[in-house]
Design goal:
By secondary structure, the protein is mainly α. It has seven helices and no strands.
């Protein structure tokens, strides 16, 4: 398939638009688009099947990360202020919830475990990086990460659409209507 516009150009122009998508008053994480855009290409490229799997997995991964933060915030005051106690608590919370995430990957709709981890990492980077429409709000961070991750596959589809020329199927010939390898005269 030939390129209409070099992929380096279309991808770069689209990448530049993420500054406007994320750099708004909502303080959305523009890099979260790149996470899922790259993830879709790691799956073999833009296709509805790949995008659907990624769209299903990433929010779930972000939800598990959200649960880790919420559990840690709720339980942390009960273990004291020592760094060792705080780290042990966080380690235990991660152990339990990460194990649950991994087991969730056994369910067919969530079987894209790397996709869940992309969402997992996107939530942590959004929350701890101070992104989101309500700074410091874990729910705003979750919505912001999920929304921006959802745009990545859209960017991948647009980049492919802008880059590659459309191919049209050739018109059927008399030979194509016969059995493979049988000349038209013999088929009659």
């Amino acid at each position: 398939m030939s390129e209409r516009i070099p992929h380096e150009i279309t991808a770069s122009v689209l990448a530049a638009t993420t500054a406007f998508v994320g750099g708004t008053a909502l303080n959305l994480p523009p890099w979260a688009i790149f996470i899922s855009w790259a993830g879709l290409h790691l799956m073999g490229g833009p296709s509805l099947a790949n995008a659907t799997r990624l769209w299903a997995a990433m929010p779930v991964g972000s939800a598990f990360a959200l649960a880790i933060v919420l559990a840690d915030q709720h339980l942390a005051p009960h273990v004291g202020g020592g760094r060792l106690a705080q780290n042990a608590l966080l380690g235990a919370v991660i152990l339990v919830l990460n194990t649950a995430l991994m087991y969730a990957g056994r369910l067919r709709p969530l079987s894209l475990v790397p996709g869940m981890f992309l969402g997992f990492a996107s939530f942590f980077a959004t929350y701890f990086g101070g992104f989101g429409y309500d700074h410091g709000n874990v729910w705003a961070a979750w919505v912001s990460a999920v929304a921006m991750n959802a745009l990545g596959p859209v960017y991948a589809f647009v980049a492919n659409w802008a880059t590659f020329a459309r191919t049209t199927a050739p018109a059927p010939t008399a030979q194509s209507a016969t059995a493979p390898g049988v000349p038209v005269a013999e088929a009659r």
